[in-house]
Model the fold of this input.
Amino acid sequence: MEAVEFDNVKYSYREDGTSPAVNGVTLQIEAGQFVAILGRNGSGKSTLAKLINALLLPDSGQVRVFGMDTKDEKNTFTIRKSAGMVFQNPDNQTVASIVEDDVAFGPENIGLAREEIGKRIEFALEAVGMQEFRYSTPARLSGGQKQRIAIAGVLAISPQIMILDESTAMLDPQGRREVMEVIKRLNRERGMTIVLITHFMEEALQADRAIVMHRGEIVMDGTPHEIFARSRELETYSLTLPRAAYICKKLQEAGLEISDAFTAEELAEELCKSMRKG
Amino acid sequence: MQIDAKGLTYIYNPKSPFASTALSGVDLSIAEGEFFGIIGHTGSGKSTFVQHLNALLKASGGSLRIGEYDLTDKKCKFLELRSKVGMVFQYPEYQLFAETVEKDVAFGIKNFSKEKTEDEIREAVKEALETVGLDWNAVKDASPFELSGGQKRRVAIAGVIVTKPEILILDEPAAGLDPLGKKELMELLHSIHGGWCKTIIIVSHDMDEIAENCTRAAVFSGGRVVMEGKPSEIFLRADALLEMGLDIPVTAKCARILKQDGFSLDTDFTCDDFVAKVLSLCGKGGAEHAQ
Done:
């Protein structure tokens, strides 16, 4: 089943339709897939994300979420319930002064019964590992914790797709790890479809699939390893390799015979093998 | 100007039930000419510390001197100090406010140097924008809000360096930029370092960035400086850093695993040095192939 389908979608922020932010994108994302979207600032990643849950509607072409056309107003509500979105700045996403009220905001808005809301809060906070903060004040939490609360708020609507638009950009390394763990667990254990927009190549490595956008178009699409193996091409889109892969490539270029490595651990393993031989 | 902090203490909301100690006795000296890195977990006190350096916060205790300025002295010439110690906050583009780029960048210098003529100010603004790599004619009349993310950040930085501060402090300058934007920003900092800008201090969570760029660094934890030295010395203590919830550079991660397997790499943890040391450890086979 396709969770998200784009059919030759164009979108421009200008009224006359010039310099489109998304320019003829055709794309299918299967349910349960974990997709990372890469690209320079201004390459159209966020526009693409907003087209998925009908925050923006295509100028031409069609976007379907589980078969529902986003242009059809009757679908808007259902689509937004199926595709939740987490943004960059945790401080802009809190609406209440107590964590549980904040998480309840979504379910309250879709008119769920009181007991059901209680269950949803419990489920969502447990899923992000924040149960003990149920009665805390979001303002007093760390960035990573706040972002996990934002994710819980989205989870409470029980969407099938979660879109994260640079949601780890403002976090420290620990906060980033926390959020990535939660995302991976939701994907693995609950089969949630994940669309992760990021500038961190190391995060993209953890996805099933990586898509590179450039000037509103999809220019590369494959597994992260396939994408990072095409380093020349990546460079033309102003992207870099994950650092470990970059070091690995330099060593290979200098004549060291090691296999491709993408993480520090993989690189160390390759080097150990090579040094034992030498 | 040299920065000397001794026993620097700061308490938020003192004498109230919400009192919390953010700095508890920071001893740190940063010499003129350094490209200094400040590392620490969220809540470690690093931002509180850098806000002291241009007197946005005043110490609750201890002493802080920058060159001839004694920042704990009420009679210190704070306006003059602030024009010499520039501070670029996290996500500085959120602080852009004027209708045009020129007016936005001019704001700082107008406030610091009231005696300057319009022409002098315009000249300084032009120079600052060119320093950050923006085309004066193309951007001067543009609204800062029409620019791209990377350009906005450059305008915001221009607004700080327009007074040519001797010491420039940047809190997470590359956060949120794409990889190329990060690289260009670090190149920009290196290009001004050593000229009128003598000392650069960056706060960063990106350990690779610290390893590649800094002459020295300090690690903050629990409101104190717990490590200080060259990146090559600091990242040797990988286990202690990881225990604090901090990251280490990819090179250090690799070297750490190699060491456990009995291969010792004497590297300074920059990419280039790491590659060179690995190649020499693997025998000169690598070098031969390259030729």
Observations:
- Chain A touches chain B through 40 residues (CB under 8 Å).
- Strands of chain A lie at 2-11, 22-30, 34-38, 60-65, 68-69, 83-86, 161-165, 193-197, 209-214, 217-222.
